[in-house]
Amino acid sequence: MTDIRRIQPPDLVDSRPSGFTQVVSVRGENLIFVSGQVAIDQAGRLVGRGDIGAQTHQVLKNIDVALQAASASLEDVVKLTIYVVDYKPSDRAKILDARQQYFTNEQLPASTLVGIQALAADGYLIEIEAIAVVG
After folding, report:
1. Which distant-in-sequence residues (6+ apart) come within 8 Å of 56 by Cβ?
2. I need a labelling partner for 107 at 20 to 30 A (CA). Which of 54, 72, 81, 133 fits?
3. What are phi and psi of 51, to 5 degrees?
4. Nearest Cα to 63, choosing from 129, 116, 134?
5. Tens of pLDDT along 102-133?
6. How far apart are the first and last CA of the chain?
7. β-sheet bridge partners, residue 91
8. In what order do the strands lie in the sheet with 23-27?
9. Which of 78, 62, 86, 55 lies closest to 13, judged by CA?
């Protein structure tokens, strides 16, 4: 039997006014879907304006918080989709540097990086969504 849980972690900005759920856990299938995270802190403030590396760190922290709310961890992540505004080759090194602090070589997820024109609000440079498998 599939049980779907929609989770709003208390340590992330409440996404419901924007029309989405931060985390959806599908028990029975052992899947966790984390909505695209941007570089905002719990109070809704942008972290790292103009700094792709700092924003990537905040985004990955947010993903970690979201996963913990669903009883999972970064080790359970199997897929990342990364959206970068006005992607430049120099961005890749900064993004990879941040990722290496959250994922070891033994737990690297599949990943897609997409260059885009804009995200939902001015100042966001990167958005990352994740899929995890638990159990």
Report:
1. 39, 94, 95, 98, 99, 126, 128
2. 54
3. -120, 100
4. 129
5. 999 888 999 999 999 999 999 999 999 999 99
6. 15
7. none
8. 3-7, 23-27, 31-37, 126-133, 77-85, 110-116
9. 62
* Residue type, position 41, single letter: D
Residue 70 is classified by DSSP as T
- Cα 60 → chain centroid: 6
- Specify which residues 81 forms β-bridges with: 112, 129
Per-residue pLDDT tens digits for 8-32: 999 998 898 888 989 999 988 899 9
Which tokens belong to 12? 């992330």
Helix H or strand E encompassing 68: helix 52-69
133, two tokens: 């498998």
| Residue 42 structure tokens | 């719990």
